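Page 42, continued from yesterday. The earlier attempt failed because a stray header line got pasted into the input along with the sequence. Redoing it now with the clean sequence only.
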Amino acid sequence: MKKKLENYYYNSLKKKEAPYAKTIKTFFKHLFIFIILVSVLVYYVDNILIVTLLSLGGFHFFYYSNKKIEKKKMNKFIKGLRNNISQEIFWKRIKGMDKDDFVVFIQSVLEGLPQFTEVTKSGQEIDLEAKFNDENIVITCHLLDGENAVEAYSARELSRFMSKNNFDKGIIISSTDFRESTKTFCEIIKEKRKILLLARHDLLEMARDADKLPLNSEIDDAILKRIEYKERAWKHTQEKIFAKSNLSNYILGGFFLLIFGIFMEGKINLLYYVASFLLFSFGAISFWVGIKKENIDYKWEDKII
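This time it went through. Structure tokens are written below.
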């Protein structure tokens, strides 16, 4: 599993750069550095042994310095990648909730924050009651999606409830954002009653502080599922390219190019040879795949590829 995760991180960072391409690139980069070091030192030092030793020393310094930089770069990238996947899982989880589940989740988040105590569900017009730094507050939760945002009338209803029940502070928590009219209303009444608006990004930060984001094991599982899906997708695509039904097309295409080359040029040009060889190779692979083919249990997701 560890190796699969490392490969996924590297492919994501390098945008699917092939392993052999990485090896070739690294080799020529190091060779270029070594040649530069030798060229510079030869100009100032006459002793070839000293030049060689200094060049090797400089090369090793560059190699390990570069390796350290690459490791820091990879660690930073991995942290960002896992954070993005964690947020994807978190918002999918929120999206799958109904209003009651969302309120229970918000209650668990607030209970995980030291500033909030005595967080309880309310049977009244609001969702939760709690103490924030020993001050009584009321909380309403809005589970929305897409471009939907909390309207001003929700803030007015909360304000009326606070006025009727002698609450000075309230919180509206939204899974999206707030309309400008809502923000304006809360700004106007802040001298009488303070209503704090907590939007999508605030909810995410609160969940992070309360340790309610997905666990590392959940993130690993999500990455492994992506890897598995890509592997199945590649097998599916490979089977289409090298299907046995394409065998005759590849073979006939190869012979057609050879005959066409003779007809047009009076002889077979190298380009026609290469193109025909590629088609024959595809034909041979299709024949081999057709013989060695194993049944693959595709999942329903593969049908949308």
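Notes: The domain at 99-209 is CATH 3.40.1350.10 (Trna Endonuclease; Chain: A, domain 1).
Reminder to self: strip header lines before submitting.
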